[in-house]
Amino acid sequence: xxxxxxxxxxxxxxxxxxxxxxxxxxxxxxxxxxxxxxxxxxxxxxxxxxxxxxxxxxxxxxxxxxxxxxxxxxxxxxxxxxxxxxxxxxxxxxxxxxxxxxxxxxxxxxxxxxxxxxxxxxxxxxxxxxxxxxxxxxxxxxxxxxxxxxxxxxxxxxx
Length: 159
Fold this sequence. Notes:
By secondary structure, this protein is of the alpha+beta class. The protein is about 35% helix and about 35% strand.
């Protein structure tokens, strides 16, 4: 092999090694933060219902829905006749190199007396991917569907 061929081969091999190391590093960092989020989720995550909100079967049809399940609208969007509204606090736990870890604490408040009916805590990792034109990946714990299912317990339907 000529000297030029050896140089071209060395450059190409170096680029491949750098690319593989970069992708592997990004994936390892995402896996680490996903693991940390899972540990936080085990201790702090999920939905806690403190006091159910009683609604009539006729009121159920006017409540907000999320994926066919009963939901609770944010305070700014909730209609005055809805028996509850939510307030969400977002806390940035970590941010570096295009990766962010966030904690969302949502309180469900009964409109009639402002009493805390339920609290939901969710953790999310966004980004940290190898640079590309694709959308950033995310990891959420607990999963959104599980959170919405658990929030069904905030309502008690009575005739």
